[in-house]
Specification:
eight-stranded mixed β-sheet; HAD-like_sf; alpha/beta; 11 helices; HAD_sf; hydrolase; 384 residues; Trehalose_PPase; stress response
């Protein structure tokens, strides 16, 4: 297998790095019981990492805190300008409930495949991430959804943790932002291959992740409300219960640990800092992998629908736009820059949308069945 080195410039929230990306010319996805796919990776020199973290200077930390505030608003005032922004934003990202007929019309004759984020999508955002339980009503809705459509949960959480919340064996689960993927344990009527689905492209990072987890536990112990979560192939530092005046201190603590680990990168979500391996793998890559595993890699008759609320879901929204297939739905009460086509405001609206989708499919199948019976009856009654 040959590799070529491409120097690219990547701009994320605050980190501007010149990165060397090794791009494989071979297929990104292996067959299903897969050795981890050969994924592009990012290499960052220790000197460059220290320059970007700039722990002693404080400027980077201040910028990160500003970004943390922007992505994690604690309250929203109702002002005329915000109302105007909301109206303008809704014109470009209308409610998926209001546009339901348009959505189902676009999917006719195609196989819908559902991808669902967990926190903030199937369950509400709560102060204690260990208590982000989904309701029985939501679980029942997702169970019915999976009867009609291939369904995957794609989360930043550890895959086992997400499964313990959802408790549905018939689903696909992609944990650690898509770096830990496993197919249904009950088998799937949609999968065209009999091989089990398993993908863990960041396995080599496990010892490092465990090491950093222990270091972060010790380093953040002095910050009340901070919680470090080990998601197996990535780490989350939750600051939902941390006083805002302590955010700068927490960001500094996290960065002081990461300065010794140039193979890990720091990103952020809704009141959470995420530490991930520097490989080119995200929720968008997970979506593509699952479509390929289901046999829809190069199909024109597939209609993927991805519903999520976080920055990390944007990678999946972007993939759908680039493919020109299906669409993304952003779950948010406030205007956000997004690649999603539609919006829903909260998990309750997500559940209503999924219920309508199930009912629409059920009625469609009933109509098809009645039509088939009628046609068969007409054939029988026709004279030879």
């Amino acid at each position: 297998m040959t590799r070529q080195n491409v120097v690219a410039s990547e701009v994320t929230s605050d980190i501007n790095m010149a990165i060397a990306v090794a791009v494989s010319k071979s297929s990104m996805f292996a067959s299903a019981v897969q050795k981890p796919p050969a994924v592009p990776y990012i290499t960052i020199s220790r000197k460059k990492l220290l320059q970007n973290l700039e722990i002693s200077g404080g400027a980077r930390v201040t910028s990160w805190v500003d970004s943390m505030r922007a992505s994690s608003p604690t309250h929203h005032k109702s002002t005329p300008s915000l109302s105007d922004d909301q109206s303008s934003w809704m014109l470009h990202h209308p409610s998926a409930l209001d546009m339901f007929e348009e959505i189902t019309n676009a999917s006719k004759g195609k196989q819908i495949v559902m991808f669902l984020d967990y926190d903030g999508t199937l369950s509400p955002i709560v102060e204690d991430p260990d208590r982000a339980f989904m309701s029985d009503a939501m679980r029942a809705t997702v169970r019915k959804l999976a009867r009609y459509f291939p369904t995957a949960i794609v989360s930043g959480r550890c895959r086992d943790k997400v499964y313990s919340f959802v408790q549905l064996a018939e689903l696909y689960y992609a944990g650690s932002h898509g770096m830990d993927i496993k197919g249904p344990s009950k088998g799937s009527k949609y999968k065209k291959s009999i091989q089990p689905v398993l993908c863990q492209p960041a396995s080599e990072f496990l010892p490092m992740i465990d090491e950093v987890y222990k270091a972060l536990l010790e380093k953040t112990e002095s910050t009340p409300g901070a919680k470090v979560e080990n998601n197996k192939f990535c780490l989350s530092v939750h600051f939902r219960c941390v006083e805002e005046k302590k955010w700068s201190e927490l960001a500094q603590q996290v960065k002081s640990v990461l300065k010794d680990y140039p193979k890990l990168r720091l990103t952020q979500g809704r009141k959470v800092l995420e530490i991930r391996p520097t490989i080119k793998w995200d929720k968008g890559k997970a979506l593509e992998f699952l479509l390929e595993s289901l046999g829809y890699a190069n199909c024109t008759d597939v209609f993927p629908v991805y519903i999520g609320d976080d920055r990390t879901d944007e990678d999946a929204f972007k993939v759908l736009r680039e493919r020109g297939q299906g669409f993304g739905i952003l779950v948010s009460k406030i205007p956000k820059e997004t690649n999603a086509s539609y919006s829903l405001q909260e998990p309750t609206e997500v559940m209503n949308f999924l219920r309508r989708l199930v009912e629409w499919k059920r009625l469609s199948l009933r109509r098809q069945f009645r039509m088939r019976i009628r046609l068969e009856g007409m054939k029988v009654s026709l004279p030879n």
